[in-house]
Design brief:
Length: about 140
């Protein structure tokens, strides 16, 4: 299925910006921030005119449609194309986010302490293997 069809299937109007941003997220595993996405398109000059507001609005629309997940890490908010259900590991040293597959069922929580819960995510935080190895040398 191509990106335009995927957007239509999820009820999202396939504008040029939405198609390009979703295609970019589908082809990266870097879990970029909104600013990193913005600078990618500025550097590549792939989209003639794009603003940060367009990036943020597009990411919100994609997340609302369930096509993109929002990953909250200690240093930034990052975005990930929803390929399948998975969790994340965040390295506090190099700031890299890795996909991890764990057989963990997250609880269904709708509210807590009178707060309305929209989403529950699992992000493990620590030192990645690469950084750990470099520290031991």
């Amino acid at each position: 299925m191509n990106v335009t069809e995927l957007l239509k299937e999820k009820g999202v109007k396939p504008t040029v910006h939405r198609v390009e941003i979703l295609e970019y997220l589908m082809n990266t595993y870097s879990h970029p921030t909104a600013d990193e996405i913005y600078y990618h398109f500025k550097k590549e000059q792939k989209l003639a005119v794009i603003s940060r507001a367009t990036i943020y609005n597009t990411l919100k629309a994609l997340a609302d449609a369930g096509l993109v997940s929002i990953i909250i890490t200690p240093d930034a908010i990052r975005y990930d194309f929803v390929r399948k259900n998975h969790h994340h590991f965040y390295c506090t040293n190099c700031k890299t986010v890795y996909d991890v597959e764990l057989e963990v069922e997250l609880p269904e929580i709708n509210s807590i302490d009178n707060h309305e819960v929209h989403h529950v995510q699992l992000t493990l935080v620590g030192i990645c293997e690469k950084c750990k190895t470099n520290q031991e040398v």
